[in-house]
Design brief:
Elements (H helix, E strand, L loop, with lengths): L3 E10 L10 E9 L3 H14 L16 H13 L3 E7 L7 H4 L4 H13 L8 E8 L5 H15 L6 E7 L5 H18 L9 H14 L14 E6 L6
Parallel strand pairs: 1-4, 3-6, 4-5
Antiparallel strand pairs: 1-2, 2-3
Helix pairs in contact: 2-7, 4-5
Length: 237
């Protein structure tokens, strides 16, 4: 059987340890390499149709772009792309001292591992992983993630390549940013003190209708197209 190759683009939302946000999320957009160029061209055609030339980011959500965002959702669910996220609720419960050797970075490595792990269970597939560059310690973090997977797969990891890239350079990373932003925003609505905007609510409702899932809840673990793993740290005594 021929090897199937995929590119995975990972982004994070509310990932800082002390940012006063109740949740955090990490997610990816997964793209078959054989479809990469075609999908990229089709997405850029949609962006041009809506006069969108700036980077697509959840933090730059614009009410005037709602039709664009909805068309991108429709396109995603008709395409070969996949989305998966880990939603971490009650971030203040995280106990790094007992479970992560006292390090928020170690928790991050675990999240990347569990985010990607289901892909490694399928034979005859190889993956290149691209992660949004967040800070100056990028190379150190990549080496650690690579080491984790090499150890888990006894030197024969299907995750053959890891690289940091800038989000403005890749539309699939931007789609990951947008979806994970919507997922964490929906969850924060139930716990953080802020007034959600009507336009973001309209988009979230649309994404939930098309996907068939509530963004602040987990999906079935075997869900392929749009998967959310709902992680809740145990309450501290």
């Amino acid at each position: 059987m021929d090897t199937q190759n995929f590119d995975i683009f990972i982004d994070e939302s509310c990932h800082l340890e002390n940012d006063h946000k109740s949740v955090m999320g990490i997610g990816y957009c997964k793209v078959p390499q054989v479809d990469y160029d075609t999908l990229k061209t089709q997405i850029h055609q949609i962006l041009i149709k809506h006069n969108q030339y700036a980077e697509l980011k959840w933090n730059k959500f614009s009410t005037s772009r709602l039709d664009l965002y909805k068309e991108l959702v429709d396109f995603f669910f008709q395409s070969s792309m996949e989305f998966r996220a880990i939603l971490v609720k009650y971030k203040d419960r995280l106990n790094h001292e007992d479970f992560n050797q006292g390090s928020h970075d170690n928790f991050y490595y675990k999240m990347v591992y569990f985010l990607l792990r289901p892909n490694g269970e399928d034979a005859n597939k190889q993956f290149r992983v691209f992660i949004d560059l967040k800070d100056t310690r990028g190379r150190e973090k990549l080496n650690k993630i690579r080491e984790v997977f090499d150890n888990a797969h006894k030197g024969e990891s299907p995750f053959i390549y890891f690289q940091h890239i800038q989000s403005h350079d890749n539309i699939f990373l931007q789609i990951a940013d947008f979806f994970i932003g919507a997922v964490t925003y929906k969850s924060r609505m139930a716990s953080d003190e802020f007034i959600p905007t009507e336009s973001k609510l309209e988009f979230i409702n649309y994404l939930e209708d098309v996907s068939g899932f509530s963004l602040n809840e987990g999906t079935a673990p075997w869900e392929k197209k749009f998967n959310i793993f709902d992680h809740q740290p145990k309450k501290r005594n």
